Amino acid sequence: MIQPDIATPEPAPAPGSERARPHTLWELFWAFTLMAMQGFGGVLAVVQRILVDERQWLTIEEFVEQWSVAQVLPGPNVLNLCIILGSQYFGLAGAVVATAGILLAPFILVLVLAALFTSVSDLAMVQGALRGLSLVVAGVIMATALRMTPALKSNPLGKWLVWGLVAATVLLVGMLHVRLIWVLMGLGSIACWLAARQLRALEANKESKA
């Protein structure tokens, strides 16, 4: 049996304490608008920082779980996360407001920039700047991924199997260029099955000791 490597759970909130969350639709809309306006080259790094570090609406473990669901679902990952969080806090209205927050300001900005970019897109200086920015964006994404790794400590599969799955995914997608859908269906299904089996074993072990 796979031995779990589970971190010690955090203590429960004190009685009467309130979990951080958006209290109005406007607060939800403004938070996602700020994320969108700061997400140059991708919103993942900004979303993780704002939701987990600044506003503390999610723990790092909750963020990784919900981000995993958002990645598996069809469509843009961040948009899926907006819909999940918005509906979690305010139902259908929250999903609509969060989606509007992540899309509205960038939509207007892109229209303006597109009109300006057409006149300078052929300049070597502009093309070089865009290539340089692409490297920075790649670094930001890698840094965000590293900041999310502490959440793996509480995974029921244990750290060695978790890192084995991570390495296999990097190998298949990054080096062998296997299509993401096949990796998700293959490794994802195996990981789900192993996690479900381990959780059942842990539950059975608790019942036997009770």
Can you tell me about this structure?
- The chain is mostly helical and 210 residues long.
- The protein folds into two domains: 21-152, no CATH class; 155-210, no CATH class.
- Helices cover 72% and strands 0% of the residues.
- It contains seven helices and no strands.
- The protein has helices at residues 25-38, 44-54, 60-72, 77-117, 124-148, 159-175, 180-209.
- The two termini are 21 Å apart.
- Mean pLDDT is 80; it is low at 1-17.
**Rounded average pLDDT:** 80
Number of domains: 2
Unreliable stretches (pLDDT < 50, length at least 5) are 1-17
N-to-C terminal Cα separation, in Å? 21 Å
Strand content: under 5%
Structural class: mainly alpha
Order of helices and strands: HHHHHHH
The rounded Rg comes to 20 Å
Oligomer: single chain
Largest sheet: none
The overall strand count is: 0
Shape: globular
Percentage of residues in helical conformation: over 70%
Q: What's the tally of helices?
A: 7
